[in-house]
Automatic annotation (TrEMBL):
Keywords: Signal
Record-level GO BP terms: transmembrane transport
Organism listed in the record: Vibrio inusitatus NBRC 102082
Keyword Signal: yes
Similarity comment text for this entry: Belongs to the phosphate/phosphite/phosphonate binding protein family.
Superkingdom: Bacteria
Gene3D superfamilies in the record: Periplasmic binding protein-like II
Name listed for the protein in its UniProt record: Phosphonate ABC transporter substrate-binding protein
Signal peptide: 1-20
Presence of the UniProt keyword Membrane in the record: no
UniProt cross-references to InterPro entries, sorted A to Z: PhnD
Length: 312
């Protein structure tokens, strides 16, 4: 699926952020992702593999959603699999960096940090049956806010999720600056909710005047009647971005990495909880991706925001 360019994409058509990979990793192939260590003694092949899904919503809900897939993963790898309910993007990155997390889905915005600071090696994302994929960032408000267009955000509070989030912070920050000349603490008051569902509920309950969110999360919450379309309305919709990237720690035994990849691509979605949850976004399969190609637009936005991939 080609990414649809908007005015911000045109405004940001300069070199994307170059790799700033931590010195503990090596990118010998030049694909911007850490390679398997050359020394086989550094390969990891644990009896129990830890899986974590990006912390965009209630982890307890997603432990159940992923349960059937993790059973399939156990059969394909011959390993015990445990679901790790991470509470923040930073905690998820640190878990992989420290060797406590082996397989993960990192959200769009935190994927570059995970790649460069934690040795994350992404290989797949969810897509529709026709192979199309992606989501958009939307700026939403509630009907009584008095906000009808982006310019009306002036003087209002705008909720972001976290600074590592693409749709929850980095993309809207670049768009508001490039397209509208609007800056935080000058034209609007920023707030941070911690998660997309928090931002959406905050707007629906009128705690925030507006919020920048991933419409994939919004659509799932609308379909589950967590909020309804009388409580929120959209005033901006962005270009399409890649969705959550799934992959492994770079230092897993290559044979094990192959089995994990095969598990993703051989999983039968039909009738599963994974299908029930993600078909709300039209997603029906896992498709191959490369970080170098599919995350180029995200690295460009990071460059616009002067984001550093330096690891602390």
């Amino acid at each position: 699926m080609k990414l649809v360019k908007t005015a911000v994409a045109t405004a940001l058509m300069f070199s994307a952020a170059v790799s700033a990979m931590d010195s503990r990793y090596q990118d010998r192939t030049g694909n911007l992702v850490a390679d398997v260590p050359q020394n086989e003694a550094e390969w990891v092949n644990p009896s129990t593999l830890i899986f974590a899904y990006t912390p965009v919503e209630d982890p307890a809900v997603y432990a159940d959603v992923w349960s059937e897939f993790l059973e399939h993963l156990e059969k394909e790898t011959g390993k015990n699999i445990r679901f790790f309910p991470v509470q923040s993007n930073a905690a998820q990155i640190e878990a992989m960096r420290s060797g406590r997390l082996h397989i993960a889905g990192f959200n769009t915005g935190s994927t570059p940090l995970a790649v460069n600071c934690a040795g994350f090696a992404p290989f797949t994302m969810m897509a529709a049956e026709d192979g199309s994929f992606g989501y958009e960032m939307e700026i939403i408000t509630h009907p009584e806010s008095g906000i009808e267009k982006v310019e009306d955000l002036k003087g209002k509070n705008l909720a972001f999720t976290a600074q590592t989030s693409n749709s929850g912070f980095k993309a809207p920050s670049a768009i508001l600056d490039a397209e509208y000349g609007m800056k935080p603490d000058v034209d609007f008051k920023p707030a941070f909710s911690g998660a997309h569902d928090n931002s959406i509920l905050g707007v629906a309950h009128k705690d925030y005047d507006a919020a920048a969110v991933a419409n994939s999360v919004l659509n799932r919450m609308l379909s589950r009647d967590v909020v309804n379309d009388q409580q929120v309305k959209s005033i901006y919709k962005s270009q399409t971005f890649p969705t959550t990237a799934y992959g492994t720690a770079h230092n897993l035994d290559p044979e094990l990495q192959g089995k994990i990849q095969q598990a993703f691509f051989s999983f039968d979605w039909q009738g599963t909880k994974l299908q029930e949850e993600f078909e709300r976004n039209g997603e029906a399969q896992f498709v191959p991706i490369t970080y170098q190609e599919h995350w180029e637009v995200v690295r460009t936005i990071d460059t616009a925001n002067q984001v550093s991939y330096t690891c602390s």
